[in-house]
Amino acid sequence: MNASPTDRPTGPGAWRSAPADLDSGRGAPTGHATAAEGSVLRKQSKPALLMLVAWTVLTGLVYPLAFTGFAQLVFPRRANGSLIEEEGRVVGSRLIGQPFASSAFFWSRPSATGPQPYNAAASSGSNLGPSNEDLRAAVEERVRSLREAGPGGPVPVDLVTASGSGLDPHISPAAAFYQVPRVARSRGVAEEALRDLVRAHTRGRQLGFLGEPTVNVLELNLALEREAPTPRPVP
Predict the structure, then answer these.
(1) Over the stretch 157-186, which tens digit does the pLDDT of each residue have?
(2) Do 119 and 69 form a contact (C-beta atoms < 8 A)?
(3) Dist. CA 38–CA 141, nearest whole Å
(4) How far apart are CA 172 and CA 203, in angstroms?
(5) CB 183 within 8 A of CB 103
(6) In sequence order, what are the residues at sequence separation of 6 or more whose Cβ sits closer than 8 angstroms to the Cβ of residue 177?
(7) What is the secondary structure of 197-229 as a DSSP string?
């Protein structure tokens, strides 16, 4: 027999005081439900922790060690920093430039790293835009110094501006040829001999079309010292 409308609870709070079976399936969790939830949490935590440990070992130990060993076997020179040795001692890296101040050497491009140029621990650019007055003044000063020391005329841009990393070991062939008269005068050698040396150390585009031709300044200066040593002062 169905309840009539008059059998239903009426008045304020009537539904709240109605028997619990009117809202079956709801109510405070029982102790059994709490224990079941705890059991599920423990079951999920164990595989999660195991996965954390497994991936930590795999990506933090196995992967780096495997690739380090592979690199040492296949290309050890590059894996160890592409170091350059001269007479049994390390004099630099093919990947990181060095500053040269003497007029008897080819000069690298400027470096914006601090506290000294070509600081590999602080790779950075100047972050100065083309309209910045400080950058403009620095470039003008570099152009003036290069023209006073060299042949004058247009100065290659890479001799007066720093690279984005501040560590670029290369200059353009044009920048190397621009410095030939100064270096030849300082060493007392023929300019054509130095031009041949620059050509011999000019590296072309990668795969014939990627990037631009470059000259590694450190390698060029080491070859220069072998071919035409710096004049020694007479005692």
Answers:
(1) 999 999 999 999 999 999 999 999 999 999
(2) no
(3) 74
(4) 10
(5) yes
(6) 195, 198
(7) HHHHTEE--BTTTBS--EEEHHHHHHHHHHHSP
